[in-house]
Amino acid sequence: MRLEDLRGRTAVVTGAGSGIGEGAARYAASLGMNVVLADVAAERLGAVAAELRAGGAAVLAVPTDVRDAAAVDALAEAAYAEYGEVTVLLNNAGLESLGFTWEVPADEWRRVIDVNLLGVFHGLRSFVPRMGADPRPSHIVNTCSVGGIAITPRMTAYAASKHGVQALTESVYLECAEAFPQIAVSVFSPGQVATRIFEDAPVHEQTADDAGFWRDQIREGMTPDEAAKLLFDGIARDDFWILTHPEAFERLASKRARVLGEKLRPDALFDGRN
Ligand SMILES: NC(=O)c1ccc[n+]([C@@H]2O[C@H](COP(=O)([O-])OP(=O)(O)OC[C@H]3O[C@@H](n4cnc5c(N)ncnc54)[C@H](O)[C@@H]3O)[C@@H](O)[C@H]2O)c1
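That is the input. Now the predicted structure with nicotinamide-adenine-dinucleotide docked in place:
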C-alpha cells in the first residue's frame, strides 16, 4: 500500500491520546488521512484532536474504553458513519504493570489482559467484518512489544498479554488471508519508545524501584513520532513484522529460539546481554 494512496482514506487509532498512538495519528494526518482517535483518557484525546484539527486534519474523536466490546462496536459505527470506510486500523491501546505475580492486585492483572489483549480482540471483531465487506486493500496493525517474544520477571501480566497479542495477530493474519485477502495484518513490535506508559503504571511499595528504572530506560528511547514513521513505513512495505529496534528484537528472538529449540530453562534468556 503506497503511502500516497492513503490520502483521503481513514485511519482508526486506539490509544491515540498519548505516545505511539498519538504519534501514529499525527503521522496519518500528515499523510492527508481522516483520523478517528479513540482513547479512554477523554481529556488527552480532546487535546490531540484539537491539535490535529488546528493543523487542518479531518478528525473524529471517540472516547472509548477498549475493554468494552460494545464501546468498540460504537467506535466502528461512528467511524463508518463519518467517513464511510476504514483503510488502516491500529489496535494500539495498552498499559503496563509491574511486580511479582503474586503481589500484583488481581484487578490490575485483569486490567492488563483486558486492555492489551482483549482490547485488540475487540478491535478485530468490530472492524474486520466491515473492512472485509470493502474489496479495496486495507491494513490492520496490532501493537505488540518485544515483550511479545521476550520474558521479563516482574512484568509478567504485560508479557502474558503481549505473548497473547503475538499469537492472536499471527492467527488473524492467517484467517484474513483465508477469508478477506484484501486485509493485510501486521504486528508492530516496539522496543523502547519515550512515552508515558510507565508514568501510568500503578506503583506499589515493592515496585517503586522497577517503576523508576523503566521510566528512566524508556526516556532514552526513540520518540513516538519516529516510531510512528517506522510503523507507516512497515505498512507501505506490507511487512508482517514492523520493528522499531531490529537489532534488539533479533537478539531477543535468537535467545527465545535457542531456549525453545534446546529446551533450556528460562534463566538461559538472561545469559549475556538482554
Ligand atoms: N513505550 C514503549 O516503550 C513501548 C514498547 C513496546 C510496546 N509498547 C506498546 O505501545 C502501545 C502504546 O503505548 P505507549 O507506549 O504509547 O503508552 P502511552 O501510555 O503513552 O499510551 C497508551 C494510551 O492507551 C490508552 N489506554 C489505556 N487503557 C485504555 C483503554 N482501556 N481503552 C482505550 N485506551 C486506553 C492510554 O490512555 C494512553 O493514552 C501499548 O500497546 C504498549 O504496550 C510501548
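The pocket of nicotinamide-adenine-dinucleotide is lined by residues 14-15, 17-21, 39-41, 44, 64-67, 92-95, 115, 143, 145, 190, 192-193, 195-197, 200, 218, 221 (CB under 6 Å).
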